[in-house]
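Weekly sync, protein design subgroup
Attendees: M.S., D.O., the rotation student, P.L. (late)

Item 1: inverse folding check
M.S. brought a backbone from last month's batch and wanted to see whether the design step gives back something sensible before we order anything. D.O. pointed out we never logged the input encoding, so this time it goes straight into the notes. Structure tokens as presented (186 positions):
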């Protein structure tokens, strides 16, 4: 019994250290975005949330999506949505204006949300990688806390999903915490 406890503690310690090592390699910060983004192409239209790290605001949310629209003065209007429980469930949304923090590269976006219409919440999103054809992207916050995988299509095949998860792992993320909410049928 004592040997099993030591083995379990050793395994848990190794798992925790491996997660900390990936964060330590980057100084606890997400890797810097390396690909330039065509803002007009990227920040327009609907993106479907294929994978994410769990957080309280998304508890019970499925069929997650983010819609971008050009805003005044180079701003980006952001509307995040999901359905409660099932892809046909009650619609839940939050949105706000976003501004590009790295003009020219266009991979860092700061969004000013309003919870319940009046509680300000500011979030930064970095696009860490994207497809050349703009069919998918991986984003995170700069503090290694959140991770998202988005595609233009609400449904992708398992091989593509595995490939995107592996890409996120290669960027230094612990992908064991990812959840894959149900998406609507096409």
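Designed sequence read out in the meeting:
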């Amino acid at each position: 019994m004592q040997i099993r406890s030591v083995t379990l503690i050793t395994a848990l310690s190794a798992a925790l250290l491996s997660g900390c090592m990936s964060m330590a390699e980057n100084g606890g910060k997400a890797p810097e975005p390396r690909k330039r983004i065509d803002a007009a192409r990227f920040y327009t239209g609907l993106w479907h949330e294929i994978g994410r790290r769990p957080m309280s605001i998304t508890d019970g949310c499925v069929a997650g999506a983010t819609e971008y629209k050009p805003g005044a003065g180079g701003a980006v209007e952001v509307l995040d949505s999901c359905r409660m429980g099932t892809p046909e469930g009650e619609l839940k949304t939050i949105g706000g204006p976003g501004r590009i923090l790295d003009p020219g590269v266009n991979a860092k976006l700061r969004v000013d949300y309003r919870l319940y219409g009046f509680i300000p919440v500011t979030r930064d999103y970095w696009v860490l990688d994207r497809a050349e054809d703009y069919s998918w992207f991986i984003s995170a916050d700069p503090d290694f806390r959140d991770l998202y995988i988005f595609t233009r299509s609400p449904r992708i095949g398992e091989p593509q999903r595995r490939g995107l998860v592996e890409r996120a792992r290669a960027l230094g993320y612990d992908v064991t915490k990812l959840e894959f909410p149900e998406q609507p049928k096409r």
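Discussion: The CA atoms of residues 2 and 60 lie 39 Å apart. The first helix runs from residue 2 to 25.
Action: P.L. to compare against the previous round before Friday.
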